[in-house]
Design brief:
With 300 residues, the protein is an alpha/beta fold. It has 2 domains: 28-114, Leucine Dehydrogenase, chain A, domain 1 (Rossmann fold), CATH 3.40.50.10860; 140-274, NAD(P)-binding Rossmann-like Domain (Rossmann fold, 3-Layer(aba) Sandwich), CATH 3.40.50. The chain contains 10 helices and 11 strands. The chain has helices at 7-29, 44-59, 75-87, 106-112, 124-132, 140-153, 171-180, 195-200, 254-257, 271-290, and strands spanning 3-4, 34-40, 63-69, 93-96, 160-164, 184-188, 204-207, 225-228, 232-235, 246-249, 263-264. The strands form 3 sheets. A 6-stranded parallel sheet has the order 1-11-8-7-5-6. A 3-stranded parallel sheet has the order 3-2-4, with helices on both faces. It has a two-stranded antiparallel sheet with strand order 9-10. Helix 1 (7-29) packs parallel to helix 10 and helix 6 (140-153) runs parallel beside helix 7. The radius of gyration is 19 Å and the shape is globular. It starts with a strand and ends in a 10-residue tail after the last helix. The protein binds 5,10-Methenyltetrahydrofolate (GUE).
Length: 300
């Protein structure tokens, strides 16, 4: 039997704990913790994500500031918006939705965000803090994956983990977090030789390659825990009325893992909802730090 890891339910619980602490923060300071989200351009998927995030921020009792800028916005204008948010005392967290239009240098924008408001954890200062084990902001998706893994497995110490993907926003920070949990970590990617054999060694598989249903059930060691970070929109197989319709699938071939994996996250309803819940958690942590208030490291 393969258990389903219900990320949606776990994320709801996390958001309700964040909501309680956000109310306590407001009672102590007389203001709400605030998250600013900057969206450049009209990408429909990004708009949906930004809208969901705004709704959930408000539902948690925090303030949401949305800045929607046209696709033609210059890099200089975007940097000026970020600097204004850095200086705004009501803004605790800043998220600039990626990807940005091609004429804007993403690294330059991320470097402009105050690291203590960088709730995405993308700034080099936060990547460095994670690498050397200092407190800082950890990217939301990998932190959410570790929360799900610890909820399922308890201690991860000594387990073999394979991370498929080496991006700055998922693969690399995921590997750092698993090292900190005392896993033996392998980072595989598109050039890895004998990928199926490498994955077969793993007690924990984290798939973040961005290729729909690439990881097959016969790559999985029986009983392993599978975390699927992929979010791929694929066309629904042709049938009457299905023209132009899409469905969401992960990087793991979910059906072929049934009966082999010990547990697996679904897509949707797995890692995705955790990403937003951790973003709200990071924003609340930022609000406490930036107001000089204590918050126990394991409070959320
Ligand atoms: N600076 C920045 N930070 C981000 O964290 C960031 C970003 N840019 N750019 C885009 C990606 C994507 N992302 C998602 C978050 C939640 C879901 C999510 O909740 N997904 C639902 C399904 C939603 C649906 O049905 O489309 C689920 O998996 O159940 C998806 C995708 C955050 N991102």
């Amino acid at each position: 039997m393969t258990d389903l890891i219900d990320g949606k339910a776990f994320a709801e619980g996390l958001r309700s704990r964040v909501g309680e602490l956000a109310a306590a923060f407001t009672a102590q300071t007389g203001r709400k913790a605030g998250l600013a989200v900057v969206l450049v351009g009209e990408d429909p998927a990004s708009q949906v994500y930004v809208r969901n995030k705004g709704k959930q921020t408000v539902a948690c009792g925090m303030a949401s500031f949305e800045h929607k800028l046209p696709a033609e916005t210059s890099e200089a204008d975007l940097l000026a918006v970020v600097e204004a948010l850095n200086a705004d005392p009501l803004v605790d967290g800043i998220l600039v939705q990626l990807p940005l239009p091609a004429h804007i240098d993403e690294q330059k924008v991320i470097a402009t965000i105050n690291p203590d408001k960088d709730v995405d954890g993308f700034h080099v200062v936060n990547a460095g803090r994670l690498a050397v084990g200092l407190p800082g902001f950890v990217p939301c998706t990998p932190l959410g994956c570790v929360m799900l893994l610890k909820d399922r497995l308890g201690s991860l110490s000594g387990l073999d983990a394979v991370v498929i993907g080496r991006s700055n926003i998922v693969g690399k920070p995921m590997a750092q977090l698993l090292i900190a949990e005392s896993c033996t970590v392998t980072v595989a990617h598109s050039r890895t030789k004998n990928l199926a054999e490498v994955v077969r060694r793993a007690d924990i598989v984290v798939a973040a390659v961005g290729r729909a249903e690439m990881v097959k059930g016969d790559w999985i060691k029986p009983g392993a825990t599978v975390i699927d970070v992929g979010i791929n929109r694929v066309p629904v197989p042709a049938s009457a009325g299905s023209e132009g319709k899409t469905r969401l699938v992960g990087d793991v071939d979910f059906a072929s893992c049934q009966g082999i994996a010990g547990a697996i996250t679904p897509v949707p309803g797995g890692v995705g909802p955790m990403t937003i819940a951790v973003l709200l958690r990071n924003t609340l942590v930022a609000a406490h730090r930036n107001s000089g208030l204590a918050l126990a490291p394991d409070a959320i």
